[in-house]
Amino acid sequence: MDINICFTTDNNYIRPLCSTMASILKNIKNETSLHIFILEHDVSDENKNKILSLKDIKDCEISFVKINISVFDNFPDFQNNYITKTAYFRFLVADLLKNVDKILYLDCDIIVLPGIEELFMQDITDFYIGAVEDVAFYFDILCPIRSFDTYINSGVLLINLKKWRQENISQKLFEAVEKYGAELYYLDQTAINLVCKGKIKLLELHYNVQVFILLQICVLLNHPLRKRLIQSIKKPKIIHYTGKKKPWNSYCPLRKYYLKYEKLTPFATDYDFKYKLKIFMQFIFLLLKDFYFILRFLLSPIIKISQKQSYFEITLFFHFKFKLFKQNSFS
């Protein structure tokens, strides 16, 4: 089986990119042939060699595709400091890889567990993309454009490049950004949702377990997809460290997986006691915050649910919270 995977990056995201690639190479089946395309801007030769060294885990083909970032000069900047204009590079993927008809795009803040073959085999013949719902969007009031039946998270995209070329999707994405500008609160992601609307195959939640939801207990307890979310957390296929807190610089749930695969990269680090203490204190702070939200959840007369359901949901929360505590490493 042949699998094509695409990343976009610059020099700032090489460390997490290597961890993502290490997780893929470690967990992919021996008989699977893998071609990784890296759409990059200004990545140094030193960092390219570090990426290429990952072939020691499993042999694969790695191609660097240089992007002229000036193409995106007129595009709006992201309103946070952890996403850069490299996110727009995927708009060009169908035109750049003319001999590839299907590709899996992944963000660099991801860990891939066994099962990527089943994801790539999903039939998207009649769709532009296959993707997982953005679980935070249900409660997000910041995006001015909200005319979506479903809104997907663009960190994991199974892309039908053949159909993108046939229907000029790349051009439509550029036009969407030019038309709406900053109204696209999540910019590239919202543009993809707008242009691909009606032609998105929804994938199971375990193919994009968005860690941010585990930092927001009040959201998790009241989420309309709560049961499915819990199942995906129990058996993840792809872990996506969404949000500002990243496992290489902060505490976040399921951090253990990132640390495991980082050890296989040239960026393997022996964290000192001071760093471990910082991470542990972040975890304690998060736990105390969760207790606060649970207390509000129990006492609030506004939330009209039965006492039985309340206790059931809180029991579920504690089960997973302490399971995460056992799984997480503070090293």
Description:
With 331 residues, this protein is an alpha/beta fold. Helices cover 39% and strands 16% of the residues. It is built from twelve helices and ten strands. A seven-stranded mixed sheet has the order 3-2-1-4-7-6-8. The chain has a three-stranded mixed sheet with strand order 5-10-9. Helix 6 crosses helix 7 (188-196). 37% of the residues are buried.
Please name the defining characteristics of this protein:
331 residues; alpha/beta; seven-stranded mixed β-sheet; three-stranded mixed β-sheet; 12 helices; 10 strands; globular
Fold blueprint:
Blueprint: E1 2-10, H1 14-27, E2 33-41, H2 45-52, E3 61-66, H3 93-96, E4 102-106, E5 110-112, H4 116-120, E6 129-133, E7 152-160, H5 161-166, H6 169-180, H7 188-196, E8 200-202, E9 209-210, H8 217-221, H9 226-234, E10 238-240, H10 255-262, H11 273-299, H12 307-327
Parallel strand pairs: 1-2, 1-4, 2-3, 6-8, 9-10
Antiparallel strand pairs: 4-7, 5-10, 6-7
Helix pairs in contact: 1-10, 6-7
State the total count of DSSP E strands.
10
What low-confidence regions span 5 or more consecutive residues with pLDDT below 50?
304-309
| 3D shape | globular
H and E order: EHEHEHEEHEEHHHEEHHEHHH
Helix/strand-derived class? alpha/beta
Q: What fraction, in percent, of the residue positions are helical? A: 25-40%
The end-to-end distance, rounded to whole angstroms, is: 37 Å
Largest sheet properties: 7 strands, mixed
Into which percentage range does the β-strand content fall?
Answer: 15-25%
Strand order in space, largest sheet: 3-2-1-4-7-6-8
For the residues shown, what is the average pLDDT? Answer: 85
Put simply, the count of helices is 12
**Rg (CA only):** 20 Å
